[in-house]
């Protein structure tokens, strides 16, 4: 058996675990984002109706802040993984491919380090709240439970930016994130699908006309 085959057998289990873990993270992040935004919308609408009836929900503001915190920090990791964060894409795409790759690697590395440092500070802040026993004013819950998502989300975002750096070292093409090669990748895939369906339709019409 060749060395290449040995390497493929050694790497494939790790790659499978990595892909499986990525899928689970994607599902969890998507679920948290969808649930948080949905609950936030329902809560705000119900609270407006309750205020008009002079029966305001006393914990609505507190719960709204919690949902916004969840959406913000999980959204940070999601945006880093899907290349949906703010960047100067128009300028970067005008650069030569080699220069573009270097810029993307540099920016991703700086972003990864920054997210990691922020995760450390967020964890320290959460730990201080836990030690002090700070509670929320309305529900009286431990406040650190509301903040725990901040270091988690920032740490996951740091990992996604590090994955982008590794992806660009391993792959020949430029990758804006671990899962997004081009800013318009989804739009291009959609257009390719539409073209394929149109070609298939034309072929069917030509066959029917030939009959």
Distance between the termini: 54 Å
Count of all domains: 2
How many DSSP H or I helices? 7
Oligomer: single chain
Tally of DSSP β-strands: 0
Q: Unreliable segments (pLDDT under 50, ≥5 consecutive)?
A: 1-11
Helix amount, in percent? Answer: over 70%
Characterization of the model:
With 211 residues, the protein is mainly α. It folds into two domains: 3-180, no CATH class; 187-211. Helix content is 78%, strand content 0%. It is built from seven helices and no strands. It has helices spanning 3-52, 60-82, 89-92, 97-132, 144-147, 149-170, 185-210. Helix 2 runs parallel beside helix 6 (149-170).
What key attributes describe this structure?
211 residues; mainly alpha; 2 domains; 0% strand
Put the structure in a nutshell:
The chain has 211 residues and is mainly alpha-helical. The protein is built from seven helices and no strands.
SSE layout:
Blueprint: H1 3-52, H2 60-82, H3 89-92, H4 97-132, H5 144-147, H6 149-170, H7 185-210
